[in-house]
Design goal:
Layout: E1 3-8, H1 13-24, E2 31-37, E3 41-47, H2 50-59, E4 66-72, E5 87-88, E6 94-99, H3 105-114, H4 124-137, H5 144-154, E7 159-165, E8 172-177, E9 182-185, E10 190-193, E11 205-208, E12 213-217, E13 222-226, E14 231-232, E15 237-238, H6 254-260, H7 262-270, E16 274-275, E17 280-281, H8 290-294, E18 298-303, H9 305-322, E19 326-330, H10 331-334, E20 345-351, H11 357-368, E21 372-377, H12 383-387, E22 390-393, H13 406-425, H14 431-452, H15 455-464, E23 470-475, H16 480-494, E24 497-502, E25 519-524, H17 530-541, E26 546-552, H18 556-561, E27 564-568, H19 576-594
Parallel strand pairs: 18-19, 18-20, 20-21, 21-22, 23-24, 23-25, 25-26, 26-27
Antiparallel strand pairs: 1-4, 1-10, 2-3, 2-4, 5-6, 6-7, 7-8, 8-12, 9-10, 9-11, 11-15, 12-13, 13-14, 16-17
């Protein structure tokens, strides 16, 4: 959730840290702070976004040759100045920034208080800081590094930490368990970050830390070892990320940029994977496991949020095209109910960041039980990409906006390709239909582009519903998950209460809510359910609900029944979510802008959910 950046070198350290935090702010923006060493240990921090921190720095200029910084998504303690990171030890010599949750912080805090330690904040991070110092000062470890190792062995939970000590002014200590950290290797300088975005403009060479690993970082070198003090040799990776990809490129918000990037991101996801001449699909990441995947008893999909919605679309695809039974699980529930999964099963985990804590927990639970574990994610080198048996990258490019857009469509495209490839390998997908699907996949980027051309129409429509108190989204079959996703987008960024339902379930409760103040978004773009959707529209109209339909160009009956409609090109039913979701993303975006909401950084949310 939170963001960490660190630097040691000859450049302006505070400037590098602040610019790095700006790149990481999508991971959390309740508060921000930094700590620098230059003969003394200086800290500036406080509630608010990184811009507030930057203003404070201009008023009280501080310099240093190394430093650590943090932008926070609050877990323990409300967002305020005191609970902001970095946290100092009682002596004021040790500073720590931390992503994750120390679950046994309360018992540790009581132990430390009984030894005379006092605490300024409500955070679990300050407890860890004090624990490190307590062990170090009492001589329970041979040196500071040993004290850090002993402290980490006592904590229960997750962490990505960076630690500096005034008595060791040439070193930054980092460690990871369940929360991502990487090292950036420069010329006579080193960088630390929770993802690549803050360091890509400085270096392309990175080292990824794994769980249970730590590093001692100096200006010209780094040493990686386990917290049990076993030295490690790590591979240096080359970043594929470009600086241009994480800039707004003239758009007012990252979210709008990412919505409009979808024709390209879908094309990039398909590129090199479709053989139009032979009407086959080649997914290099699954070659080594395809036989086992073909023979699987069932597929279980585990994901969270928007990725869970894409998994629901995948369920329909796998069952129709590959004739494989599928269950879709909330990753957050999967690990806590002793799931019945074994060697004949496949667990498919989906995550934009590849770092989602609940999804990683589901992955590890399934691996323990012998299942084949596959991943779909967007971030090269992420934990899910490294820990799964095999998988497929979406190649959607960086997604900075907290509300996911292009990640959803890229995930659905990958699921479609896997389902088609499986259906062909299992001999259950007719050649003519498979060929038609593959040809249609190639046409989807252009069709998305046509929908985006209606953005001004959707923008005008959004003005009429900006202050609606509630929304209802209805869909059937492949577009039921899109109803859920449309409602989620509106909730996330505009703070309007919205619910998605299978259209047939409306009469089993939600119909009681419908009146002339209730906009009802109806997704009527799957041919085999169209007659039933028309009946549902009539039921809403009979109760004076305001119909906004997303439907195919030639669906005149739905258009005539709708107060407002958004036309989309026709496509195969199984691909309709890739088109129907686009107008809903735009509608949510424009409503949120009209309401004055911070679209890219909605309240209480963060991009990469690395805590449970």
């Amino acid at each position: 959730m939170c963001g960490i950046v660190g630097y040691i070198g000859d450049q302006n350290t505070s400037e590098i840290l602040v610019n790095g935090l700006k790149r990481l702010e999508y991971r959390g923006y309740d508060s921000a702070g930094l700590a620098l060493i230059n003969g003394k240990l200086d800290i500036i921090k406080g509630k608010g976004k990184v811009a507030s921190l930057e203003k404070k720095l201009k008023k009280q200029s501080i310099e240093g040759w190394l430093g650590i910084a943090h932008t926070r998504w609050a877990t323990h303690g409300e967002p305020n100045d005191i609970n902001s990171h970095p946290h100092l030890s009682q002596s004021g010599k040790i500073a720590v920034v931390h992503n994750g949750i120390i679950e046994n912080y309360n018992s540790l805090k009581k132990q430390l208080a009984s030894k005379g330690r006092t605490f300024q904040s409500e955070t679990d991070t300050e407890v860890l800081t004090q624990l490190i110092e307590e062990i170090h000062e009492n001589g329970n470890a041979p040196d500071f590094e040993g004290a850090l190792q002993l402290a980490l062995k006592q904590v229960v939970g997750t962490y990505g930490i960076a630690v500096i000590n005034l008595d060791e002014p040439g070193r930054i200590y980092v460690a990871r368990k369940g929360s991502p950290l990487l090292l950036g290797i420069g010329e006579n300088e080193m960088f630390i970050a929770s993802d690549a975005s803050p360091i890509v403009e400085h270096t392309k060479k990175v080292v990824y830390l794994e769980d249970g690993e730590m590093a001692v970082v100096t200006k010209n070198d780094y040493q990686v070892k386990t917290i049990d003090d076993v030295d490690l040799t790590k591979e240096i990776h080359e970043l594929a990320l470009s600086l241009d990809a994480i800039e707004k490129a003239g758009y007012p918000h990252f979210m709008l940029k990412e919505i409009f990037e979808q024709p390209r991101s879908v094309a990039d996801c398909l590129r090199g994977r479709i053989r139009t001449d032979s009407h086959t699909i080649q997914l290099g990441g699954l070659v080594d496991v395809m036989d086992r995947l073909v023979e699987a008893r069932r597929i279980v999909i585990a994901a969270c949020g928007t990725s869970w919605h894409s998994g629901l679309v995948g369920e329909y695809m796998f069952e129709e095209l590959a004739k494989l039974p599928v269950e879709v699980e909330y990753a957050s529930e999967f690990r806590y109910r002793d799931p019945l999964i074994g060697e004949d099963d496949v667990l498919l985990v989906i995550s934009q960041s590849g770092e989602t804590a609940d999804t990683l927990a589901a992955l590890r639970e399934a691996k323990k039980k012998g299942a084949l574990v596959l991943g779909i994610c967007n971030v090269v080198g992420s934990t899910i990409a490294r820990e799964t048996d095999a998988g497929v990258y979406t190649h959607a490019g960086p997604e900075i906006g907290v509300a996911s857009t292009k990640a959803f469509t890229a995930q659905v495209v990958v699921l479609a390709m896997i389902a088609i490839a499986l259906g062909q390998r299992r001999g259950v997908l007719e050649d003519e239909y498979a060929g038609r699907l593959i040809d249609e996949l190639n046409r989807l980027p252009d069709k998305i582009d046509k929908i985006l051309e209606q953005s001004e129409v959707i923008k005008k429509m959004a003005k009429l519903f900006t202050y609606a108190p509630n929304f209802l989204y209805l869909g059937r079959s492949y577009n039921f998950p899109v109803a859920l996703e449309g409602a989620l987008k509106l909730k996330e960024i505009s703070y309007i209460h919205a619910e998605g339902y299978p259209a047939a379930e409306m009469k089993h409760g939600p119909i009681a809510l419908i009146d002339e103040m209730m906009p009802v978004v109806v997704i009527a773009a799957t041919d085999h359910t169209n007659d039933k959707m028309i009946s549902n529209i009539e039921e809403v109209k009979a109760r004076k609900g305001r119909i906004v339909s997303v439907t195919n160009d030639e669906n005149h009956e739905v258009k005539e029944l709708s107060e407002f409609f958004i036309s989309i090109p026709s496509t195969e039913d199984c691909f309709s979510p890739l088109l129907t979701v686009i107008p809903l993303q735009l509608l949510s975006y424009y409503i949120a802008v009209n309401r004055g909401c911070n679209v890219d950084q909605p309240r209480n949310l963060a991009k990469s959910v690395t805590v449970e």
